[in-house]
Amino acid sequence: MNEISFKLVDKIERDHALSLDEYELLVKSLTPSLASYIAKKAIKARKRIYGDRVFIRGLIEISNICKNDCYYCGIRRSNKNARRYRLSKEDIISCCGEGYKLGFRTFVLQGGEDMYYTDSVLCDIVSAIKSAHPDCAVTLSMGERSRQSYKALYDSGADRYLLRHESADKEHYALLHPHEMSYDNRFRCLYDLREIGYQVGCGFMVGSPYQTPAHIASDLKFIESFKPDMCGIGPFIPHHDTPFAAMSAGTLELTCFLLSVIRLIYPNVLLPSTTALGTIDKSGREKGILSGANVVMPNLSPPSVRKKYELYDNKICTGEEAASGIEQLKDKIKLIGYKIVTERGDIIKK
Question: Per residue, what are the HEC states of 308-323?
Fold first, then answer.
C-alpha cells in the first residue's frame, strides 16, 4: 500500500485529479514519510506560482449572533451561555482603519447568520470600506443568503466570499446540521457566488464528528471539480456547549496532509493556515505553511469581543494571532523561509 500511495501523490501532481477510491486510499495511507513526500511537492507547486509570499487578511468577527443551530458550533442559537455581541458600522470601519495602518489590504468580515445585517445594512458597510480603502479587497463570510443578496453585496464592492461546504456527502452533512438546514441550499449558494463573479472559498473541518476517509474523499473530489479560489480547512475542535462536546478533536497531521493534497489538486488556490491549527499546536500555523498553505488571517476584531466569538474551545486570539502582533508574526514566518506581504493577494490564474 505504501508504494501505491506514493504513486498516487505523483498522479495528483501530474493530473491534479484522482478517483474517489484513490482519494480514500490516500487518506487511509497517511504516514510521516508520505506526508513529507507530498509536502515537498506542494511547496514546489506553490512556489512556482506564489514564490515565498504569504498573504495576510485582517479578520473582523462582526457578530456572534446566529439564527442557525449547527451541532458543532459554539455560537449556535441554542447555546444560552454564549455572550452575544454585534459590531456597528462605525466599529467595523474603525477596525479596517487600524488594519490599514498595519499594512492589511484585505479585510474579512465574518459572522454568524445575524438577521440584523440585512442587504441594505451590509451593503452600506461594504461600500463604506471600499470608499475609505479603494485599494483593498473585502471578503465576506456571512453564511447562506439568497442569490439576490449575494448580487447586491457584490455590486456594493465585495470581492470574495467564504462559505465552507462542510461536507460533500449529503448524509454526513445531515449529521452535522439540524433538519432545517439544507445540503442542496449550501451548494446552491456556492454555485451562485461563482456565477455572480466572486472569488469563492469553500472548505470543511478535518476530523469532524462521524467523518470517514470516504467522506474526505468526497470533499477532495468536490474541490477538484469546483476549483475554489480559496479553500479553508482546519481541524475540528469541540466546544463544551454543543452536542459534540465529547467528540475527539481533529489532528494536525491529517490537516497538514490534506493541505498538501489540496495544493496539488489546484496549485493556484489561496490556502489559509488557520487559527485552529495554532490552537491544536503552538507551531501549527507554521506547519500549515510548510505543507502548502499561503494565507494567514490575524484577528482585527476589537479586543473586547475576540473571546466571545468562540466557535470552538480554547481559541487563541492574542499575540501573533492578533493583528497588533503583526511584527511578531512576520518574524515567525521569516524563520521558516517565507515572507508576509502587504498586498491584496488575489488568486493568480495561469
Answer: HCCCCCCCCCCHHHEH
Grid cell locating 23:
482519494
Is residue 99 within 8 A of residue 133, CB to CB? The reply is: no
State pLDDT tens for residues 297-338: 999 999 999 999 999 999 877 666 666 788 888 999 999 999
Q: Which whole number is the average pLDDT over 174-203?
A: 98
In the 8-state DSSP scheme, what is residue 325?
G
Could you tell me the residue ranges of all domains in the chain?
Answer: 2-341
Burial 251-279 (b: 16+ CB within 10 A, else e): bbbbbbbbbbbbbbbbbbbbbbbbbbbbb
**Edge-to-edge strands, sheet with 339-341:** 295-296, 53-56, 339-341
% residues pLDDT > 70 (the chain): 98
What is the rounded CA–CA span in Å between residue 278 and residue 268? Answer: 24
Q: How many helices (H) and strands (E) does the chain have?
A: 13, 9
Backbone phi, psi, residue 59, to 5°: -90, 125
Q: Are 317 and 67 in contact (CB under 8 A)?
A: no
112 neighbors 143 (Cβ within 8 angstroms) = yes
What lies within 8 Å, CB to CB, of 173 at 6+ separation is: 166, 167, 183, 186
Q: Which residues of 47-82 are buried (b: 16+ CB within 10 A; e: fewer)?
A: eebbebbbbbbbbbbbbbbbebbbbbbbbbbebeeb
Q: β-strands 58-63, 106-111: how paired?
A: parallel
Which residue type sits at 4?
A: I
> Following DSSP, what letter does each residue of 253-293 receive, concatenated?
HHHHHHHHHHHHHSTT-B-B--HHHHHH-TTHHHHHHTTT-
Record: fold of 2-341: TIM Barrel (3.20.20)
Q: How far apart are CA 50 and CA 270, in angstroms?
A: 10
* Residue type, position 305, single letter: V
Per-residue pLDDT of 31-80, as tens digits, reads 999 999 999 999 999 999 999 999 999 999 999 999 999 999 999 999 99
